[in-house]
Design goal:
This protein is of the alpha+beta class. Helices cover 19% and strands 41% of the residues. It has one helix at 108-132, and strands at 26-30, 34-41, 46-50, 56-62, 64-69, 72-77, 81-84, 90-94, 98-105. Strand 5 (64-69) and strand 6 form a beta hairpin. The chain starts with 25 loop residues before the first strand and ends with a helix.
């Protein structure tokens, strides 16, 4: 069964509510340009150093975490936001049970290539239509 990703205009509850008290890490939005995920980290959990191609933001929704980037550890609590440029190596560790909203802009060249292909296809279609007129 495929995972449900939010559609444009769909409201998504990010934190626990009485009908679903247990949260799990989940991709909320996944498009060629953007990935948004809810990351649920139990206290003590560590995410090893890694980097992603595009810019990334972290929004701590619940709990406390630390993010290692640019040579140091930055503490984050609920409502703290952190931006990292693309290719910046970072790691995370949960000081308490935590929920983090992670947004990743996918590599710009992938989206640019897709747009170029779409434009070339449109231009080719227009040429074919003109040749039939």
């Amino acid at each position: 069964m495929a995972l449900h990703h939010a559609r444009s205009g769909e409201v998504v509850g990010l934190l626990a509510h009485p009908q679903a008290p247990t949260l799990q890490s989940q991709a909320i939005v996944s498009t060629p340009e953007l990935e948004v995920m809810r990351l649920c980290l139990p206290a003590g959990k560590q995410v090893p150093p890694h980097a992603v191609a595009g810019p990334i933001t972290l929004l701590c929704l619940q709990g406390q975490i630390e993010v290692q980037a640019h040579g140091g550890w930055q503490p984050m609590r609920a409502n703290d936001h952190l931006y990292l440029a693309g290719q910046v190596e970072h790691a995370l560790r949960a000081l308490t049970d935590a929920v983090v909203l992670v947004s990743i802009q996918r590599h710009a060249t992938s989206a640019a290539k897709r747009n170029e292909t779409e434009t070339e296809t449109e231009t080719e279609t227009e040429r074919k239509q003109k040749s039939h007129d």
